[in-house]
Amino acid sequence: MLMLSIMATIIFIITIVVMMLATLLSKKTLLDREKCSPFECGFDPMNSSRLPFSLRFFLIAIIFLIFDVEIALLLPMVMIIKTSNLMNWTMTSFFFIFILLIGLYHEWNQGALEWNN
């Protein structure tokens, strides 16, 4: 029991020494404006907070999430092809992909995917 407590004390002391050396030898500056300011997704946090938010950025993010979830639903369909009825699997897959393509066409037709406007 005595040996275990001695080992624990030695490990604790070595840990403290290494942490103190890492703190002293690191080249961290505390007065850097860029590193001390919070990161706000590309917005400058030092400016006024009453600037209008880009609705196109929000729309592109929502479209990305919708299509990302749909792709996550498509991936398991490949895995179950061997265990399911081929006709049911084919009809379900084509129907789901058809809905995806209609949604993509609608977004493209509405101009939501264009960045240069």
Automatic annotation (TrEMBL):
Q: Where in the cell is it found?
A: Membrane; Mitochondrion membrane
Broad class of the protein's primary localization: membrane
What's a Gene Ontology MF term here? NADH dehydrogenase (ubiquinone) activity
Q: How does it sit in the membrane?
A: Multi-pass membrane protein
**Which GO terms of the cellular component aspect does the record hold?**
mitochondrial membrane; NADH dehydrogenase complex
Q: Does the keyword Secreted apply?
A: no
Catalytically driven reaction(s): a ubiquinone + NADH + 5 H(+)(in) = a ubiquinol + NAD(+) + 4 H(+)(out)
Membrane spanning residue stretches: 6-25, 57-80, 86-105
Keywords annotated in UniProt: Electron transport, Membrane, Mitochondrion, NAD, Respiratory chain, Translocase, Transmembrane, Transmembrane helix, Transport, Ubiquinone
* Enzyme Commission number(s) from the entry: 7.1.1.2
| Ranges in coiled-coil conformation | none
Its top-level enzyme class, in one word, is translocase
Keyword Protein biosynthesis assigned: no
Tell me which Pfam families the record gives. Oxidored_q4
By sequence similarity, the record places it as follows: Belongs to the complex I subunit 3 family.
The record's function comment reads: Core subunit of the mitochondrial membrane respiratory chain NADH dehydrogenase (Complex I) which catalyzes electron transfer from NADH through the respiratory chain, using ubiquinone as an electron acceptor. Essential for the catalytic activity of complex I.
Name of the molecule in the record: NADH-ubiquinone oxidoreductase chain 3
Q: Give the species.
A: Anopheles sacharovi
